[in-house]
Amino acid sequence: MIPAIAVTGASGQIGGRVARRLAGAGISQRLLGRDPARLPDLPGAVKAPPASYGDARAMRAAVDGARTLFLVSAHESAGRVREHRTAVDAAVAAGVERIVYVSFLGAAPDATFTFARDHWHTEQHIRATGVPHTFLRDSFYQAAFPAMAGRDGVIRGPGGEGRVSAVAHEDVADAATAVLLAEAEGRGGHEGATYDLTGPRALSLAEIAAELSRAAGRPVVYVPETREEAYASRAVYDAEPWEVAGWVSSYEAVANGEAETVSDAVPRLTGRPATGFAEFLRENPGSYRHLLG
Fold first, then answer.
1. Where are the alpha helices (DSSP H) in 39-193?
2. What are the residues whose beta carbons fall under 8 Å from the beta carbon of 4, sequence distance 6 or more?
3. Start and end of every NAD(P)-binding domain (predicted)?
4. Tens digit of pLDDT for each residue in 101-150?
5. Among 49-53, 130-134, 185-189, 203-207, which stretch is predicted with the lowest mean pLDDT?
6. DSSP state of 12
7. Which residues have C-beta within 8 Å of that of residue 40, sequence separation ≥ 6?
8. Whose CA is closest to 209, among 138, 274, 152?
9. DSSP string, 159-184
């Protein structure tokens, strides 16, 4: 039997997709989540006891018996890096021999996008363990951009004329599955690798708005904001300062050219072209339903 893969976030957008793909390939796996009742019922999969990343004892018990940890990053929070470190250390203590981590495009200690810095610190901690690893650095998700448009058909933010190579969840899941299967089946080739997972083109926010206009059949526009305007327009959400900084700096990273990288990693890993934004909209009309009426 192929050694089990522990899949975190198995009830979520990436972990759930990967879990279903691994099950279809006949791979044994342990599904992790804070609420086991939300985990999918899949052949060859065991639902691990409830575990959150910040609970070392629970994480160690949840990954017990797995040789590989597929680590989907935690929800954004002020203590996310600490949670990641705890989860990684618990997995290593439980005997995990390989970690595949879902990181972010352009992860760096001085990245403009504040959440990208979290990913860099997590990568550094994984490297320091000495455990073989692979990093999947996703671009911004394509599904996020319809959500950025309000019901008034306006995308607002300090993105300037920058471009973003947004990627589809399906492409990330297919790429991650390819990496996990290669290692599980003894084909290897991904140890120490870092893959930038992007769409096939980098689009400006104005071009993204134009694609949304075509899909929704109504005008959608991009209205640039200054940093001050961006903070002011988001004050109505009464969010924590770290969260607002993440929202605003995501646009600023686009403006600074930190999101425009286009990689061939998706087609190389999956054997098919990466999904373009227009194709994503055709396949996911529900993503822009709020713009239709």
1. 56-63, 80-93, 114-129, 144-148, 169-184
2. 28, 29, 30, 46, 65, 66, 67, 68
3. 9-180
4. 999 999 999 999 999 999 999 999 999 999 999 999 999 999 999 999 99
5. 185-189
6. S
7. 10, 11, 16, 19, 20, 31
8. 152
9. -TT-EE--B-HHHHHHHHHHHHHHHH
The residue assigned the tokens 């879902």 is 102
Lookup: tokens for 165: 């190579």
Task: For residue 46, report the phi and psi dihedrals to the nearest 5 degrees.
Answer: -110, 130
Domain boundaries, the chain: 4-138+169-197
Q: Are 233 and 202 in contact (CB under 8 A)?
A: no
CATH class of the domain defined by 4-138+169-197: alpha beta
Chain position carrying tokens 């309000």: 150
Residue entry with tokens 């994480």: 59
Q: Could you identify the residue written with the tokens 């959150």?
A: 52
Tokens of 10: 């198995």
